[in-house]
Design a protein that fits this description.
single chain, 12 strands, three-stranded antiparallel sheet, alpha+beta, elongated, 6 helices
Length: 227
């Protein structure tokens, strides 16, 4: 009995760590440069620890309440919010979170009500019908907006900040973005051998999907900050 109680406590702690990380990672409210840098450092370190746990052992790590998708109907309200009808209840606004946003973005999706009380988890978006998957994916895309970096036009160091002029975009739509990064050793991070994340002082994230596919000038401008 004691072993089961300890397991439940560990599972609860792990789940709290996951969603603490995700809430920080997608925070949209602007904060001061010092505060943002501190938060980002904590987030990325926590991300590294959490996502090292394999997805295959996730179900054993915590007590997951899987949604019965045969009883679930996701929909969009007239006000543009994502809702859920589930098991006789109607949740007119829900919160979706990825448990493993980098390694497994389409698996282990937490579904919570507007008061942040978890309703259940989706094991994989592939288990949803095409129509339902589009609704869930659209909501996740809004929450985890993270544009791709196509080109680095210029980089300038000034007073402890690195100022980037980037060409970013999504789904083929490109535009220019100027951003500032503080403490580059923590806020410019390799996600794997070829993928890079940039966190600016406003809490925004930008992804270089493949360093090897960047043009030579862009790569040369980034090289001093690749640790």
């Amino acid at each position: 009995m004691k072993r089961k109680e300890d397991g439940n406590k560990n599972g609860k702690r792990l789940k709290e760590e996951w969603f603490s990380f995700m809430d920080a990672a997608v925070q949209e409210k602007k904060t001061s440069a010092t505060s943002t840098t501190s938060t980002t450092a904590q987030v990325t370190e926590k991300q590294k620890r959490i996502e090292q746990k394999s997805a295959s052992s996730l179900a054993d790590a915590i007590d997951i309440g899987w949604l019965d998708l045969s009883k679930a109907e996701f929909y969009v309200t007239p006000g543009g919010f994502t809702g859920l009808r589930y098991d006789g209840k109607d949740y007119n606004r829900i919160i979706l979170r990825r448990a493993l946003p980098i390694k497994h973005p389409d698996e282990y999706i937490s579904v919570a009500d507007k008061d942040n009380k978890e309703i259940g988890m989706i094991r994989s978006l592939l288990e949803l019908s095409e129509e339902q998957r589009k609704i869930v994916q659209a909501e996740l895309d809004k929450r985890y907006y993270c544009p791709t970096v196509y080109e680095v036009k210029s980089v300038k160091d000034k007073l402890g900040y690195v100022y980037f002029e980037l060409i970013i975009g999504r789904d083929g739509v490109k535009y220019k973005k100027n951003c500032a990064v503080k403490d580059v050793s923590k806020n410019i991070r390799m996600l794997d051998d070829d993928k890079l994340a940039i966190f600016d002082v406003d809490g925004n994230r930008y992804i270089v999907e493949s360093l090897s596919k960047l043009d030579k000038k862009s790569l040369k401008r980034l090289e001093p900050y690749l640790f």
